[in-house]
Records
---
Amino acid sequence: MARVRSVSGKALLLLVLFYLALPVLVVVAFSFQEANRTGLPFEGPSLRWFDLVVSDDAFRNALFATLKVAAAASVTATAIAFLGALATARGHLPMPGVVRGAGLLPLIVPPVFIGFAMLIAIDEFNITPSLFTVYLAHTLVTLPLAWSVMLARFDGFDFSVEEAARDLGAGRLKVLSRVTLPMTWRSIAGATLISFAFSVDEFVVTNFVIGNENTLPVLIFSRLRRAVDPSINAIATLLLLTAILAGILAWLVMRGGKDEEPDFDADSNGAVDRPAGKESLVV
Amino acid sequence: MDHRLGGREGILNPELRSRLSAIGLASPLGLLLLALLFVPLGIGLWYSFRQGSLYGISGGLSFDNYSEVLGRETFWKAIRTSVLFGLATAAISLVVGFIIARYVRFEKRTLAKVAVAVVLLAVFGGYLVRIYAWRTILGESGVINSALTTSGLLDEPLSWLLFSPTAVVLTLGSIYAPYATLIIMSGLESVRDDEVEAARDLGASPFRVYQRVVLPLIGRSILLAFTLIFLLAAADYVIPPLVGGPDTQMVGVLIANQFMATGDIPLGAAYGFVTLLLLVFFGTLIWAAMRVCGLLPKGAR
């Protein structure tokens, strides 16, 4: 009986994993297809579409724009989240519960509403939609990710260490640079990388505020509406690679120990290792 | 050194000082939310009461846009579709999420690590990319159809695979289920082994353990996942036009079209705010229903 249960549990698991992984696998596989279509039988493998894509100026510009926006937005969002979470966890802030929730708001409000509201505001203030407005939008929508990672970090932070440094005569900036930052750099790097990966892929809000520029998802969208174009597979694969690399990097850096603190309750209940903070993507 | 120590305690009392510095540290967060979320939504709300025409937007405020939105049959049809698809997506996401999270939490095998990797791959793995993939999979000359026809199982490709309600819900599910999985995983994390073992020692069957111990303990995560996925899926405006057909007009598309195609911005804003209100209403309804059904008892995490 127990054996049957465990086998059927495994079959179910494999089925849902297949459901989640299938689309990604299909896109990656067909980016290596030789033929000018995306169906079976598979012909290849070939790097034909990658060759075409990397020598395409539209692709290069979009890639560069995507990386620029993602770098700027993820750093800004993480810096803001760092300061806010530090203040919230230290406990001198009025209404800390409200502040905690507020940082998650941009995740809870569906992006279509954020998108059209920003478009109207841009219009009202006579700002031209550009990569700068995309940067602002991405800072907003990646904030909740950075926020939950930084909050999780500072909730487990021993603030008496900061106090000790101050009692020994260190000024505010020195405490920050010599104590707080070294103790939290892993979470900071993780928050930045997760925000980066999210920004690289963001389309729903971007589509409202981008104007005539292109990021990779916007480029893919504009080509989606044309007839069959297998170069999309190659662009998509490269986009995936960028986001997933950032994701893996985030996982590695956050997994490598809970910053500089001893980890007393590591794995006491035998749970699978998970990057610090991942479990609190939702607070 | 000494004078700096003294200066710190200076004019203001320490408590007021630390309070002010905390507010200072959190102010960028407040400013960001104010400038990029609240002010735009406020301006949007104001626009929704103005009049748009081919020649621009005029200043007079009225409820005309709202009465136009509420009087449109297409709007209510789109709301029905959105709510239906949102609920279906949330349900699929919960099932997928629970199957994966349960395995990862209670079975410590290599497959559990593979499962976590797949979920993370799906979370970071491209929104548009995966929508496009489903088109490739379900399309008339797509993976399934070309496999069926070239293998001789079918003479004609199945045309109903793509551009159907099933395709939309399938795609919505594959996009949003990974998020539900993460939420449920974090919920199961807080279920302690001894709580499960205690139930088992007292003779509860595996099913009873889930029904009476695990599910009530993660009620909050389930509720959060269901409501969040419902909101996000019901408001999606990209998926329905790309994989859906004539019967799958969702409300997000109506909103986006006002901004991208038709260009009546005040009317679009009115569409947006009515929709936001209705979705929040339905979300609250779900929350209340689940509370009444006892899915969220005291002590839920």
---
Amino acid sequence: MKKVKLIHTSDLHLGTTFKFLKDKSKWHRSDCQKVFSDIIDLCIKEKVNALLIAGDLFDSPEPQKSLVRSVIDEFERLKKEKINVFISSGNHDPYKRDSVWLENKFPSNVIIFDSADLEPKRIGDLTIYGLAYTNDTKEPLEDFKAEDEENFKVGLIHGSTTNITWEEQPEAGYRRILKTHLDKSNLDYIALGHFHDLLEIKCKTECFYCGCPEGLSFKNRPDCYVLLVTYSDGKVTVKPIKTNMREFETVEIDCTNHESDAEIRNILNKHKGENKIFRLILKGSPTLDFSLDIDLLLKEFEQKYFFLSIEDNIHIPENLIEDETTRGHFIRLMKSEIKKEKEPEKRKRLENALRLGIGYLDKTL
Amino acid sequence: MVKLLDLELEGFGRFSNKKNFDFKDGINFIFGLNETGKSTILEAILASVFKYTSKEIEPFYCWENLNVCRTALTYKTDKGEVYKISVDYKSGKRKLEKLEKNRTIEISSVEKNIQPLLKEHFGFDNKKVFENTTFIRQSQMTILEDATSKKRMKDMIEEVFAGRAEASATKALKKIKDVIKDCQKGVEKLTIESTELNEKLKSAEETKSTLNVDNEEFEKVKKKLDEKSKELEKLEKNKKLFDEKEALLKDKNHIDSQIESIDGILETLDEKEEPKLVSNRVIGIILIVVGIILSLTIYGAIIGIPLVYFGYKKYKTKEKPVIKKDENIKKYGEKKKKLINDKAVLESQLKEYKLVNFTVNDFDDLEELKKVVDSLKQKKVELQTNIKRTTELVESPEEIKEKFDTVEQNISDLKNKIEEHKLAAKFLELAETEVHKKFTPAMEKNCKPILKIITNNRYSDVKIDEETLDINVKAPEIKKFVDVCYLSQGARDQLYFALRTVMSNLLSGDINVPLILDDPFHNFDDPRLNKTINTVKEISKRKQIILISHRPYHEEFREFADNFIKV
């Protein structure tokens, strides 16, 4: 009875900078490394036969030496447990001259695909078809059909299933994988990389994007996974295992009917968590009585989050009272200035100035 | 002149049952002790005209009558039309009706239509501004007692202009400018930080390039050390084999020579006759006898005496054991047999070294190689510590760049904040100038006739500085404009009433709304009160007045009041 166990991961983007996380960028970069190390632990704990990395292990083709060294150390740990690692490179860490793949000596258990076309590597009951990322346009599964054999046949590919219907339209252009290609691949499991969230691709074969194991941007869903793939009795089972340390979350609130920041505070209290990377987007057109001091809110709440950002997208309401008071005159003057301004950024700045002026006049600021 | 005609309350505040208050022209004096619901009446008027939020209305729900909470305010507009605004606070619905002689016409029950009409009728559509403009409160009159009243009166005018109690464009502008200053300080500080980081970044990049050189050197040394170490290891292994073989050979040679010498002994043993052994005693006795005989002659004694002596000595000497020849042969035979065995063992060991064919010369370089490996090892450690130290001491350029970016981002955020505050200040200043320019001449003009009447022609000329809002009144005695602080308390009060009356009309867009006096004469003494009553009476000819008080002696007002309402 053939039984094979794999861990499928991709898009770790080790070494990436998270500019939007400001001073937490460094932290989160090391979080990603920690999660990678956790995946190695998981491989050992689950006694898997192999770890599959479907591209973008590194964020750049020439990552820092110290990073590469620590990754190699992690692979060495797998070597001791006789666990193989299969790597198909991705668009961020393509296989090319001077790249990490050619400049370093990886342990003997690490198999890095170096061919521009899918080629099989067989170890025991497992056959992995992988390929090197050498350009952005090749359609990796075009005209491909795996040989018939007893082994568990797995594809390991970094590419984009752009033409497959699914809700979010993924970024196009990169290495198209068509549904017809998937259907006639004759593979038992296809391990994909490139998209950052867990996604099953419905086709004749079990086919999954595992997503990145640690969130990389606000586009990520809060939880991230690696996939534990088991082949037994000719049947493939796929089990997601949660891996992320931090949780990306975005909440949008319409402040149109808000009179104070009480509701914002409620939300900030409700969602808090030391591992949360939280983005609050404020929308709508609340009255000018609604005063907002984002700096103050950040100061108060940022300790309760790993990272907190509050995006101010609120606008001024339509029907502003333009009475004969200084307040009214100020509103009128600012409104006509706002009306004249066509550039959204400058417009928003004027709107903010209006809200500020009223805030100071009404002493809510 | 806008006039309130009737207010109906039900389930509002303290009024659980339906209750009506009629208002008349002139002074409407609402009297009641504390906590009787006087302020509830004012609140009900405000709640009728300006839509309250559910949070604002909550305190007015009547806990004795939780099913209902409603008000209905009937009023006459400037144009003489009569309207009724009914509000049901439980459902949040409002209804505006026009009351004509024999019929009631529903104008609207749609919020977005009602609000503009109310604004048209009352001149305001913001409760706070309305309150700030048409209400005169106790604290405001108290402030007029202050000797620094020039500034106070100016501040209050500004407050009315600003549309919010205790607010003013001047105060707001000061605050905004303070914030701008703070932000600019922040930018300066961050700019220094950014410059420092930039320099740090440059030096880190330099360090990184030297580090790269060190790293390369390290890799080279490491590689060379590996090679040389392997070489040395091999040579040392060979040397060991060589030494072992040499030692074995030496042992074998030694055994060979031992065997050889035993063979020699055995040979001589075979050849030799057994030696004739004469006893020492016999020789001794012979020597003694011969000695004694020789000693018989004088010259013979010279030889004879020593002979006796030697003889005696010989006699005393112990006899050597006599070893038998056969025993010796046996002994050496066994010894030889053992040696041959040893040799065989050695030879079989030596067979394993058959392939070890080195000469001493092959190991000439060994010491030199050892030295090379040691120095390489040392070099490697040096480089390693150097690299480690540099890496630990100096942040990586990437990290510094990240910090630099964060600082730059903070600078740009602060600059944005400054920009926004500057814009707010700019337009607020503009608005302030606009309002002052627009209203100070009208205030001056409209204030004069009222002031004339309420001061019995004593004061009639007022000047208000367009920029500073300084108020000067022409003193008839000296025929010069004097600062308000030189006026008597009474004159100050009168001037203030005159100004407020004018301002409420100006800010309402020339709609003559009622003046609401919320217990402002609370702690007036009798002379001040009497003067004020006269002033209010005068004003009530041009404006409906709603006066609220809880002070019993204010019942004096009853005589003057056109309508007395006791709550």
---
Amino acid sequence: MFNYFIRRFYLLTITAFILTLLAFIIEHWTAHSDINDNMIFHYWDYMLAIMQGEFGYSTIDNQPIIRVGLIAFASTLELCFFAFILAGLVGIPLGLFAGLKRNGGIDYCIMTLALIGLALPVFWVAILFTMLPNMGGWLMPIDGNISSIYEVPVVTGFLFIDSLLVSDKYQLDAFLNHLIHIILPSSVLAIFLISEIIRLTRHAVTMVMRTNYIKAAHAKGLTRSQVVYRHVLKNATPPIVHQLRLQISTIISFAMTIEIVFSYQGAGMWLFDSIQQGDYIALSTAILIISGFILLSTILVDLFLVIISPTIRKSFYADQ
Amino acid sequence: MRFLSIYLCLTLLSGCYQAESSLTDSLIYCTDEAPSSFNPQISHDVASLDATTHQLYNRLVKIDPISQHFIADVATHWSVSADKMAYTFYLRQDINFHHNDYFTPSRKLNADDVIYSFQRLLSKKHPFHNVNISKQAQTYLYPQPFSNLVRQIIKIDDHTIRFVLNKPSVTLLANLAAHYAVIHSKEYALTLLKSGQAEKIDSHPIGTGPYQFKQNSNRQLIRYQAHKYPWQTPVNINNLIFDITPNSTKRYAKLLSGECDIITNPASSQVHQISKNHHITLSIQPTTNVALIAFNTQKPYLNNAVIRNALTQAIDMKNILDAVFFDTATVTHSLLAESSWAYNPRIPKADFNPQQSRFLLKQSNFDFSKTLRILTPIKNSIFNPHFYKTAELIQSNLADIGVISKIIQLRHVELQLALTEGEYDLYLTGISPYTNDPDNLFRPLLNCNANALAGNSSQWCDNKMQRLLDDTLLEVNFIQRVKNYYQLQEDIQAQKIYIPIAHLLRFDVSNKNISKLQINPLTGINFHHVKKVAPLIKEADL
Amino acid sequence: MLINNEFNEQKIQSPLQYIWSIFRNKSIAVMSMWAVVTLIIIIIFCHYIIPYPPSLQHPNMLLLPPYWADGSEQAHLLGTDDLGRDTFSRLLKGVQLTLSGALLITLVISILGIIIGATAALTQGIKASVLHHFLDALLAIPTLLTALILIVLLGMSFENSLLAVSLSLLPQFIRGIYICIESELNKQYLIALRLDGATNIRLLRFGILPNIIEPLVTLLNRSFTMAILEITTLGFLGFGANMEEIELGVLISQNLDLVYLSPYLVLFPGLAIFIIIIIFNVFSEGIRHAVIEGEE
């Protein structure tokens, strides 16, 4: 198993190397610097600078670009995380229902919903959601991460944590305010995620229900709920998590689009603004930050899968 | 259904969402654009004026908003010599500069500060004359009439100064009350020079105004706090926040949800809806800002006044006003606002007449196979809520008379390039004069020395008109000046160098719990006396 | 011997005919097929269908609502926008541009993807390894980011946005194809075919491709959906088609300011995107089910 992770790590470094190469090419291209000099030396300089954390400065406000980017991406992650929780709470039960009652009426209803959810253009749903408060007459914020009245200094970049850190000044108000701001954008993202989770859960549950050990469990006289909790859920989780891992980049894409509609200050808004103002250095930095995160998350998800799934663990030992 | 109940709970939280607007010592003003700098001496755009003039700085004199008379501000009183050549100002002695984490003043305001501030505008040798401002921009960013007017500023004692003029003039007070005549701290400027950070003077301002600068984060948020040692009546608001929200429909939504207390420039399509809402106050101010179409008079065919005249007749201005501006602008036939003393009411009105237009074009051998390039900025501004739609309307009007046109939309940097190179035939723009002096409007538009970036986007240069412009500036006789401007307006109208589309109105919308807001369309918004009370309980039917 | 022709005559159907006969029996699939045909007719004959030229302005009929609402005009089925242009005509024009772009992208992706994916699966050694790592790296960049970068590098235009979207979706498609072919290659009948000495092309043409139709349809459908979503997203953000080209995303962003005055102008283009995607999804589901049932 240790060998496996060494190998994964080795593959990761190669991929990361290719990513820095891509980022370097993009930065070189957008900056239009003279390419007459030796490219390899340039790349070497670039790598050295990156190793020292020197990613360059934004041309808009002369801030270190990596800091701006990381803060923005932290907001995106918060959005995704919140949407994941919402989607998990809604999607997994629905997917379970659909999988257990396969080809029944409920199944058809749920799957139609999932189909619709996957076909909706995200940015359009986001626009509709920004109109919702106006139509429904509720006072929901549709713009930004937090009301500008709260002065929250950046400590971790995650606004949920930062707003708790200033709780002596505003009590929980800042935290709650951020929470309310995140509801609408994360609901939009959750619509896509719910559909995806329903689909995956239904598929995984169907697969598990066909196995012999479920039949055996039934034969043992376990009740339906016991079977579901003890066997189906446990065995269906790894394939769902594995499939969702492949979707991370799509999810981040969608989150970035939603951010732009809601002016939620995350990675999407940051890139959008930077491109609008011709600050192209943000692009190469964004590649490094976002792809770096995605690579790292694949490893972490693998680790997580190993922890929750004995079968995968076994396959490692079999390798040796 | 556990998850649903959690979700519902979260949604219900929005019920108590209003909490922040009950903080009556904080005020959020939502605006559409970030200021280009924090120094009105070099930035004259509306966003910069709103963010600086009345908030951060004081001037020697100011205009009473009600009586329109000059009243004391930094100066307690002043005297004028008999020949109107010298003005002596006596300064207050108790004025503190802002104290904050990057500057602590060691003395109060005195004559040195005043002279040092004005010298930046007047003297080429002043260490800050070239800071943050390019040589080329100096010609149009430093106020010309003022520098032509003042010969010398003499310090009589620590709290008395004298302005000596080039010629007798009554316009000095108006100039000193204008937004660019603000007083900076000499001590702060010298500190910056010493530490080699001279450019900070315009981004980290120190002034004497009721609010002091606290933070400007990332072009999204500007925070001010109340002046720690105020010398004027203290403000009621402790934290003044400028929230830059470029999207106008969102600004209105934020006003309704209590995330903004005051918003500026609501979407033109929403003004009607806003005026019907009883929970908010809508303030409408006529401005001298004018949206206009410039003909590039250096281009073939467009250098012919008859053709310009014909094209003007083909454009349906009323339709543009209805479709783009809704009710946020007033029809106009003159560049100068009707409120101006030089406004010529007798200039002929341009009328919409496509047949006549086509006839004129044919008569003057216009080449109908030529494609006219209509240049527009990609970003909408106060001059036009929707540049592209305006261009589309003009395009379709021109197509009706058989003239082919192409719309070119450019981002700021590319736009400046296209303007300097003159790569366009029509250009949609606007101009915001920052003083009541008509010269301030006409000079950028018509001056031979001004390039397209400075405002002369029709690339106009005519010796006769130039002479008229220059003569009028130096003319002492008021009647003659008015006559000259009448003449100038008639010339512009005859030559059709610019076609005014509309004079814009300034809209500011505030919640009912905000009072005593002062808005001056020329010098910007003033939060000095603003009061905020706890919000009234709103009905749900917002 | 008496041969009872009526009983014993069995028509041997070709696989395609067999799949078609299954497909034909599903009413929803057939309906979606006709809808797809309609959409394609719209693409080809859009110019003749639309009642008005899409940029023709009717200055005295601004912001009309669709025909079922009060104050509408019969002449404008779905109302007009703020310059008095016919919404229906603009919508169809938008569908034409967006849909043809997405179909083109799907076509290009499928051809390139199958070639590269098959090459990757059928070759070993350093070439395949380099390709793999490169794919891994590309897959770690979100598609929107890839598209944005390409747009910045290439310049903003509709053609470039199509190029950017295809390049950003290509890695996923290649990876999908690669996995399909790889799992197929391990099957015994292919090993047998190989032992017979079949060349790679033959292996691909007769062994692999007919057996991966089902996952291929899913992949194509996914690429198509993502292509539509990305084209419109880029258009909406102002990085794709410029304002003069009528594209569904651009239509939405153009009318965003008017959303409270006339929400239809934003609703309709979004609905059009949604309906196109649903139609193609149902259609591909129909094909997939027919193929699965046919195989069983």
---
Amino acid sequence: MSEKIYAFLLRLFPAHFREAYREEALQLFRDRYRDENGLFRRLRLWLDLAADLVISLPREYFHPQPELAGAAAHEHLRGTPSFYVSGDELPRPGALILGGVLSLGALVAVSILLGHGGSRGPLRASARQRLLSTEARSSAIGRAGPQSDDATEGEAVVSGLSARSASAETAPSAATLATKATIPSNSLSDPPLTTVSSASSQPQDLQSQFRQPRDTASTKIAATVDSAPLNAAEQQRVIAGVIANLKKYYVYPDVAQKMADALTAHEKSGDYHSAMGGRAFADLLTRQVRAVSQDLHLEVVYSTTPLPEHPMGPTAEGLALYRKAMEEENCTFEKAEILPHNIGYLKLNSFPDTSVCQAKAAAVMASLNDVDAIIFDLRDNRGGFPDMVMMISSYLFDHPEYMYSPRENTSEGSWTRSPVPGNKLADKPVYVLISARTFSGAEHFSYDLKMLKRGTLVGETTGGATDVGAFHRIDDHFGIGIRETRGINPYAEPDWAVTGVAPDVKVKAEDALEAAIKLADSKLRKK
Amino acid sequence: MPKRKLDPLPSAAFHILLSLADEDLHGYGIMRHVAEQTDGRMRLGPGTLYSSIRSLLDAKLIEELDRREDARLGEERRRYYRLTSAGRKLARSEAERLADLLRVARSKKILRGSYV
């Protein structure tokens, strides 16, 4: 009966309210009616409802979108402080017009400020604008990765006999796009530029070998272009070359000797049959030296086309090309935006050279400075320059933190340059989206954040780049990648080489963003 | 003009935001929480409650979740609401504003007490 009376009273409300909340209002009435027994409570209930009608009915009718009721009528003073907020009167028309004019003025002023660069605000704003403008184009960057992986065009060139160990960990994909050249994942710091300039004339499929056994697409293609079988003399020469390089460059001489002994023993016992093609032979040698050394950052490589005898150093032309590519592709920062619930989202498709992209990276990070959580999307990130890995990581800590890299000894370069002045991200939750295409420098970033428990990795196990460090030519077709220095891994071997970095939360790569947003949401709610 | 409706934040809306700070609640749950946190002084009626909820939803300060049952209240499925991070921020800044007001009141000797 009571419910019927209240249902009848509800008909006094306008239709838009009844459509949206009639059931809920009745439900609430039933709940209260059930819980509030006794004469006094029932009386109070009806008084409340009457007061509620008196307050909310006019509002519902006067404003098509209902006002937030002050509800002050229900609140009684009992000598304790109460605060009333008077936001219920409609402003006068004059005030509305003035407000409108002022807002327009402010809007115009802000857009003028954005257009004419100043120091802080405009830098950030223009970064945002450029991000937006390149968004469409950058989707092409994402596609560049897989194309080059397939090695169908076989563009990669080995150079990389130069020495520095801190180096580009894999080809920046934008350079790939711009020059039709990819860079072997393990070539050294300057070689990316070298290879860019010399690549187009020397197609090779070496890239696919560097790209790991897990990369089935490239392996398949590789099989079809494998060379004619090697004869015994050729095999012997390659083995001698491998042994010589190991003895000369491998960081532990005793292990180098053991590997040499093993190879010699295999040779003597006739393990290398004559029908073997170049690639299969290189793979076999790789497995054999790894079996002895347990070092996954070691790889014998076969190239169908001749390796250059004297790889060129970095050229001005190469640097200019790279710079141009980075400018065109927004330094591979494909997207930086703030998602609902103030979650920052950064899609980064390589870790570009800081000498070219430092300002861009700083601007992008600044644009995300106020978020409550941040998601790094590295699902299409094929790696890049350790300096950029360290630069981005620096934002995530409030003190210098050691970031392990397989090719760095404990050195200054292995410590983040934290804290970054003005940065607020150091204590914000971090999520990293990874996929089987996440590679090299991106694995460096993911692996260390995981090990430092600074980030939650969401997605699929990463590609597992070997990051061998230095490449040494043996002959026209064979070479060997050897890690010259050995980073001290505080988390014990193996790192990500070959096996990849496993996610903390395993989901399909395409579902990773959604999953990370959910994780961030629930984390922020618990705060 | 949703802006005007929530700025300044009406006390009903503020109480609703506070009630959702710890857990997701349905309408009746919000009403009870608000009554509890005001020692029974504020009992939101359905009209006030749901028009406030609608304004808060419009301003994305809270969000609506899928309907589900509340085991303690029978088998009826209820709409649940959740505080968004924007809502949490707004509630925090409103609380700070009130705390400032309280400090002023204390400095004017209207209210006794050494600190907020």
